[in-house]
Amino acid sequence: MAKKSSVEKNNRRQKMTKNAAAKRSRLKAIIADKKKPMEERFAATIKLAEMPRNSSATRIRNRCEISGRSRAVYRKNKMSRIALRDYGSKGLIPGLVKSSW
After folding, report:
1. Disordered: where is this region (predicted)?
2. The domain that contains 96 carries what CATH number?
3. CATH classification at residue 56
């Protein structure tokens, strides 16, 4: 089980990203627009840099929904390899069959 503080920190980052997504995309559009004057683009760059770092989507870590584990998480299932194997062995994941030969 992962530390509660790590899981909560990641949840806060997800909320911040969701709230700031529109503003970040507007600023990025201004920065990318080469037709705008250089001063306006530079001001947008400064505003983007002043925003909290945790409002960026790249700061979010994929975590297991069950255990909170941050490594070896399958995106499709949102589960770690350990939880996936455990639930798969119990037959709780539809369509997943443990291989045997």
Report:
1. 1-25
2. 4.10.830.10
3. 1.10.287.1480
